[in-house]
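The aim of this short unit is practical: by the end, you should be able to scan a pair of folded records and say something sensible about each. We start with the first protein, listed as its amino acid sequence and then its structure tokens.
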Amino acid sequence: MADLTTKTTPIVPLDVPTATDALELVEYLSDTCRFYKVGNELFTRAGPGMVDELRTRGKDVFLDLKFHDIPNTVAGGVRNAAALGARLVTVHATGGAAMLRAAVDAAGPKCGVLAVTVLTSLSADELAAAWGRESVNVADEVLRLADLAAESGAHGIVCSGREAGLVRERFGDRLAVLVPGVRAAGGATQDQARVVTPQQAVESGARYIIAGRMITAASDRRAAMQRLLAELE
């Protein structure tokens, strides 16, 4: 299973176009970072070999492909991700209980399934429009989908830091919470609608945080990573 400790673990996203760019960042951060996210952009360019290379270098991999399909198809994708050595994978919670259970069964004991609830790029108005409703309470939707994830045996969920505390209150350690969209205090939000600082994420009970532009866009990325680790301590 993925890291089951309650300490907040930072994950650096390799949201870059090529394997060369990704491995340069990994090399530069060296021993300051052990956990990396491989998402759609890099995976569709570099393929499974990127996961193999990271594992060879002793790094943990969060394969963030957000599977959403019929249960059998999702199970096949998750099974392959686990066989590659991914420690965490994502599936969309809106795929339903059968899909989530299929993903959990396929992942096996060494790979944790995280159910994506409401994307941090979506505001309440945008979510309501996408789902054809007059209005939506984001926190209520996150908790509803978190219930589904818990019942399906998922390792955890993905939600914004603004809802993480509510999830922690309801589920305690039962569900690990991954918070994306983490920004340094005063940092730009870019394409994220619901963001928090690392300290706020820790206080809300996040098990994992995605430390993106605050690391990758820093003038000294290694120093930025060291500052983040100190803050998380």
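Turning to the second protein, read its sequence before its tokens, just as you did above.
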Amino acid sequence: MPALGDEFRSAREARGLTLSDVAEQIHIRSVYLHAIETEDWSAIGAPVYVRGFIRTYARFLGLDAEAAVAAFNETVPSERPPAPVATAERERRGLSPWAIGATVVALILVAFVAFEYFSYAQNAQSVASQPEPVPSGSQAATAPDANASASPPASPSPSPIPLPKHQLGLRVDAPSWLRVTVDGTTVVEGTFPAGTAKSFNGRVADVRVGNAGGVRLIVDGKALPPLGKTGDVVEQRYTL
């Protein structure tokens, strides 16, 4: 059986395609495609990214994507088995302050994103229920009724709170590489840990993620479903 990398290279060459041709069509950089064909996994990074790239490349070439991922899994060390209860208890008690601090920061970030989202939803509902203000020029002047009892004037209604427009928010639930381009300018690119939350303003946003199942988007206040499955590489454009 040919090696995994040789199988990808042979399938590509059989179609008369160069690495640049494939990169342009599936939006994976040619350096990563070359790393797959040479089985240089360290050039790609974490196994979750490798699996996502392998799936996308295999589907494009008409190969069995899951069989290719299984072949890759055989080349990497097996994951550590679950620790016995007693061992897990000792490890839990021995957590370092850094680990505890990182967990607390991640929870705070998630709570902040949730608070911002629900605050926005409540403000939107409040604005929708407020009556439109009547222009002062349309109010008819009336003479005061001499028999009417004096009463203080009613307080004016508060001005409506403007809804946020042209806004994209994202939350990283699992480590993922991502790139965000707003109105033609790349504003974010890199690998981000779980708990990362960001927001952007503009009119057109192009979002590309390396782990589609680990990133959620909020467009103009509306939470969208996951972009895809864990490990999938997905690129989408949003008109804000």
